[in-house]
Amino acid sequence: MAQVQTSADEPWALGSLTTKLKQYIDALGAVWVEAEITAWTPRAAGIFGTLKDVDEDTSMGFAVWSSASSRIPDDLKVGDRVVALVKVDFWRKGGDLRLNVLEMKHLGLGELMEKLERLKTQLRSEGLFDADRKVPLPFLPGCIGLITGANSDAEKDVLKNARMRWPAVEFEVRHTHVQGPQTVPEVIAALTELDALPHVDVIIIARGGGDFLHLLPFSDEQLIRAVAACTTPVVSAIGHEADSPLLDLVADLRASTPTDAAKRVVPDVGEELARVEQALGRIRLQARTFVSTEWDRLTQVRTRPVLASGDWIVTNRAEELGRYIQRGADLATRAVGDAQAETTALRNHLRALSPQSTLDRGYSIAVSGDGRVLRQTSDAPAGAEFTLALADGRIAAVSGGATASGKASGSEGPTAKSPKTPKD
Is the pLDDT of residue 186 over 70? Predict the structure, then answer.
């Protein structure tokens, strides 16, 4: 193509330039390109998205109009590597370039998706996604740490919805990039700072929706490990319902949107007051029911005959006590009578065995001078003095000796001495 000569004195009109560009681009015709799908948004007019070079950091938007939709596979999605027949469409009025996709073929997962799948498998094997390591959120956080873009819709949604639900809630907001190469280090720095603040009860990382490439920083390994190391509960509010960065898997709670994050982190004060009032109502009802039931039971007990008049208790007990007293007296009298009879029998038996009883029957007992009882005639030889114990007293005697028949010789028995009388 020949070099075009222009100067400050002979410039082209802008329309001439855009016309020539349009002609040159149209002359390029349709070409096949290999790329990776990083955004895929079906709409009524067609499908709109972004293709990224598999090796370089180069992206370009595309459109699949309804006339070409029949030549597009139904299972294409973000992350797929494809080859596409495209025609560059240049819009002269705005100076915009877009790829008009005429045909597209699926080649498999793109390089980025492959890397993410490998990283996901590795982190899952290390247990970073396990449910048992996730920390439960506090019921009512006093202060919420918020990491988001400056003046972003995500920030406004979180603050607005949280304060609508609980006006007294406080925030520690840290603004960071939410796309591009600065996102990961800034988010990690903000996360570390908020995690070190003792009054921050929960941390929300929020970003609005975006295509696959814009959300890639929130699948970065360094960021994922930083979130896993946090002692403060972390809530992921990245993208929309269909977006699933790895941050969602490692976070203690995954919210579908920033608004959803605010609703799940902060309880609604009106709902909580209503629950408290319902609980108080149930407590009052149970208390009234309990008191009423116990009062009815007490009334029934008080109306029983046993409690209607208490005199019968004294009367019955008095009669029973009288029977016990009479029985005790009878038993005591019988015991005393039996003891007296036994005592009399023992006394009579003892008297029958007493030496005095023998003496009363006319017998006597011979006792030597040294107090021994004389049992044989040899115990009192002739001339021996001894004493005879009779029933009414004692007399002194002298043995006259013994005969073969047991009688003393020279007399019929011992000679008794008259008791001595005092001299005048």
Answer: yes
- Alpha carbon 157 to chain centroid, angstroms: 36
What is the per-residue pLDDT across 88-133, written as a single tens digit (0 to 9) for each? 999 888 888 999 999 998 776 566 777 888 899 999 999 999 999 9
User: Which residue in the block uniquely carries the two structure tokens 């005959």?
Assistant: 305
Encoding tokens for residue 158? 């979180």
What pLDDT digit, counting tens, does each position of 24-81 carry?
A: 888 888 999 989 898 999 988 899 999 998 778 889 999 999 888 888 888 888 888 8
The Cα–Cα gap between 62 and 76 comes to: 14
Q: Write down the H helix ranges in 150-242.
A: 153-165, 183-196, 221-229
Checking if the pLDDT of 152 tops 80, the result is yes
Instruction: Supply the DSSP string of 229-257, one letter for each residue.
Output: H-SS-EEEEES-TT---THHHHSSEE-SS
**How far is residue 384's CA from residue 381's CA, in Å, rounded to a whole number?**
6
CA-to-CA distance for 65 and 99, rounded, in angstroms?
Answer: 11
Mind listing the pLDDT tens digit for each residue in 194-229? 999 999 999 999 998 777 777 889 999 999 999 999
Total residues found in the chain within this entry: 424
* CA separation for the pair 46, 48 (Å, rounded): 7
pLDDT of res. 370: 85
Q: Nearest 5°: CA angle at 237, between 228 and 179?
A: 85
> What are the residue boundaries of the structural domains of the chain, listed by start?
14-109, 144-267, 268-331, 359-416
CA end-to-end distance (rounded Å), the chain: 201
Does 144-267 carry CATH code 3.20.20.70?
no
CA angle 244/245/250 to nearest 5° reads 105
Please report the sign of the dihedral spanned by the C-alpha atoms of residue 194, residue 199, residue 201, residue 204. Answer: negative
- CA 179 and chain centroid, separation: 42
CATH number of the domain at 14-109, please? 2.40.50.140
> Based on the number of CB atoms within 10 Å of its own CB, is 122 exposed (0-12), middle (13-18) or buried (19 or more)?
exposed
Residues 6+ apart with CB under 8 A from 58: 52
Reduced DSSP (H G I as helix, E B as strand, rest coil) percent helix, strand, coil of the chain, to 5: 45, 20, 35
Whose structure tokens read 């908020």? 194
